[in-house]
Design goal:
- It is a single chain.
- The protein is mostly helical.
- The longest helix has 31 residues.
- The chain contains 6 helices and no strands.
């Protein structure tokens, strides 16, 4: 049981910090775009990332665990930096890397749900699987936006993302 708890806490701590990076990166991303349906959707995605962070934080509290302060500072900095680079990088790179990242996030939430299942934390399992589902929706959105871009085949070869 302690291995499952340790695994769950580790993933939740990583997710908690990852969500702050994602939220700030998305904030910079949508603010850098002209008025469009994509801009509005990315703004919604930012709000969903803040919601995930809140929910993950609640599970950490229930597990008597806390975020890792150094990781928090590092990921806050990463998110803010990525948000700023959206103003100079154009739209494709942020969209591509956001989709690729979201595909990894959904897997992490599914892994966390498996640990929660081992601990008989049924409410946590449902919550984590819901967050995984939302992350898949994010990935599908970003994939749809970049699907026809001429750089996509090259980026997939270099960085992956099916």
């Amino acid at each position: 049981m302690s291995d499952a708890r340790a695994g769950l806490v580790r993933i939740l701590q990583n997710a908690y910090s990852g969500e702050v990076a994602a939220a700030y990166a998305y904030r910079g991303h949508w603010k850098s775009l002209k008025e469009s349906p994509e801009k509005h959707r990315i703004r919604e995605i930012e709000a969903e990332e803040w919601d995930h962070r809140r929910r993950v934080g609640e599970w950490l509290t229930k597990l008597d665990a806390a975020p890792r302060p150094i990781r928090e500072k590092v990921f806050w900095t990463i998110g803010r930096t990525l948000g700023l680079t959206c103003y100079i990088s154009g739209w494709f790179m942020p969209m591509y890397f956001a989709g690729r990242l979201e595909s990894q996030n959904s897997v992490e939430y599914e892994d966390a749900a498996a640990f929660a299942r081992e601990l008989n934390m049924d409410d946590c399992v449902r919550d984590l699987l819901d967050m995984a589902r939302v992350e898949v929706e994010h990935e599908e959105f970003f994939h749809g936006v970049v699907a026809e871009h001429w750089l996509l085949p090259t980026m997939k070869r270099v960085f992956g993302w099916s």
